[in-house]
Amino acid sequence: MATPKDTVWPREGHTGAKHDLLRRYLQAWLPILLRWNSRVTYAEGFSGPGVYEAGEPGSPIIALQTFCQYPDALAGRQAHIVLVEERQDRADRLQAELAAATCGMPTVPVGLRIHPVLAGDCADVLADALNDCDAPGNPMFVVLDSYGGPDIPFTLLQLVARNKSSEVLLTFQPQFLTRHGQRDTHRANGDAAFGGTHWQGVFDQPSDRKLDYLVDAYKESLRLAGFDYSLAFEMQDEGGHELWLLFATSNVKGVEKMKDAMWAVDPVHSVRYRDPRDPGQMLLEIETTPYAVPLERILLVRPADGAQTLDELRDWTNLKTVYKKGQVLAAVRSLISSGRVGKPASRLEGSTSLSLCSAPVVANDDLTLF
């Protein structure tokens, strides 16, 4: 989809699913963080107008609505909302939408502070805005949702990661990755976005590997910025529109809560997920228990030295794939029954050592971006 030109534009299917995911995650994140911290901040660097063409709320309004659901958790505490939007017309519309949404709330917690919307480029404005309200000294959840790709200074990622309880959700469309994967002239911009030159190996990759290579490179950038863990997956709606989501945190529980949210997204949005580690590139329906065959393929090609225990496979799956720890046992049992994993000598338990055998994988050749 081309970058919207109007102040307000139609909402795509994957955007609706992303907003559902955001709401569900914030409902888990906010009460937990306020239990242990006197102040939290929600921030966006590409906020948009706060509403879509058919009246659906934008992510800043969803965040406001979610914060207002927890007046008891906010008692004696503070929650700040900091928003940046590049275009003045959209910033003005967002300010109006926030005012209308606030007036329509049954209860607005006393500790909720909605800062005036700032009009300007995220790269130029957001870091200063966060520093001005002392947000980096406390937990932050920062959404960086750019049509052009994560054209975000690496220093901004470092600022967010400075507090180990802070997290970031980045979304971008494949054009960003395509741009940096095709032309040597974009090397300087790529170095700034990735925080180094490690991404430039993409020029040596075959066409069908460039996209996933750059996703892995950006995950490495998030680690270099200071986040301990990251999760990446593709969302594709029924219109074929693609959106990549990367979530970064320094808390394993954050990864687990994000997965809980992503697999609880309402299927009405008709969105499917793809894990970049799946060599078959299968799109997964949103289900409580997603189809396990891609996980079996991922486990077979995962890098490992020697045998792995069931618990080690669970931990690796939790931190490196879109699947949950609880979905590993069924996949391993299937691999054992098919002979792709040697049958253990004793009962299958967490400490059971498993030897994974390599198996040929038929890849999907339909996806070519370069």
Give the strand content. 15-25%
Biggest sheet layout: 10 strands, mixed
Distance N terminus to C terminus?
17 Å
CATH architecture of the largest domain: 3-Layer(aba) Sandwich
Helicity level, as a percent range?
A: 25-40%
**Helix and strand element order:** HEHEHEEHEHEHHHEEHEEHEHHE
Computed CA radius of gyration, to the nearest angstrom: 21 Å
- Return the domain count: 2
Shape: globular
Supply the CATH superfamily name of the largest domain: Vaccinia Virus protein VP39
Q: Uncertain spans, ≥5 residues at pLDDT below 50?
A: 359-370
What structural class should be given to the helix and strand makeup?
A: alpha/beta
User: Number of DSSP strands?
Assistant: 12
Query: Quick one: CATH class of the largest domain?
Result: Alpha Beta
- Average pLDDT across residues? 88
Structure description:
- The chain is an alpha/beta fold and 370 residues long.
- It has two domains: 13-274, 3-Layer(aba) Sandwich (Rossmann fold); 281-370, Winged helix-like DNA-binding domain superfamily/Winged helix DNA-binding domain (Arc Repressor Mutant, subunit A, Orthogonal Bundle).
- 39% of the residues lie in helices and 16% in strands.
- The protein has twelve helices and twelve strands.
- Strands 1, 2, 3, 4, 5, 6, 7, 8, 9 and 10 form a ten-stranded mixed sheet that branches. A two-stranded antiparallel ribbon has the order 11-12.
- A hairpin with a 4-residue loop joins β7 (229-237) and β8 (242-249).
- The longest helix has 24 residues, at 13-36.
- The protein is globular, with a radius of gyration of 21 Å.
- The relative contact order is 0.11.
- Residues 359-370 have low confidence and may be disordered.
